[in-house]
Amino acid sequence: VKGSRIPDVLCFMAARLADYKRDVPDWGSKPFVLVPDLCIEVISPNDNYSDVDDKVAVYLEDGVRLVWVINPRNRTVKVYTAGSNQSTNLKADDTLTGGDVLPGFSTPVRNLFPE
Q1: Which own/partner pairs from 17-22 qualify as long-range (CB within 8 Å, at least 24 positions apart)?
Q2: Is 33 helix (H, G, I), strand (E, B) or coil?
Q3: What SS3 string covers 62-101?
Q4: Chain-centre distance of CA 114, in angstroms?
Q5: Most CB atoms closer than 10 Å: which of 65, 75, 106, 108?
């Protein structure tokens, strides 16, 4: 779909996905237009940081509730939440949580980057 953005990983709350499938009976035969609850971008060596920042801004403008930008080279995670103008920068000793989007999820950032 022209103008669409697809993150490396996207997640939908099960109830929202079920409602979408119920409300859009032919959902499987046309472009999927449900806004994800969580988008995850993994920085690759050829990514331009300003392009990633632009994607994050658009995700949040579109209604994504939580965005994680994972940087394997620096072993860091930037967390963006809807309604906040700031990101949280997490390092290896910090804990990544799912907040209101993924209640109960938490993992040390170091677990995302195996040795």
Answers
A1: none
A2: coil
A3: HCCCEEEEEECCCCEEEEEECCCCCEEEECCCCEEEECCC
A4: 21
A5: 65
Structure confidence at residue 3 as a pLDDT band (50, 70, 90): low
Distance CA 93, CA 77 (A): 11
* Burial class (CB within 10 angstroms; exposed 0-12, middle 13-18, buried 19+) of 56: buried
Cα 49–Cα 53–Cα 59 angle in degrees, nearest 5: 145
Alpha-carbon Rg of the chain, whole angstroms? 15
Q: What is the pLDDT of residues 35-88, one digit of tens each?
A: 999 999 999 998 888 889 999 999 999 999 999 999 999 999 999 999 988 899
How is residue 83 written in tokens?
Answer: 């309604």
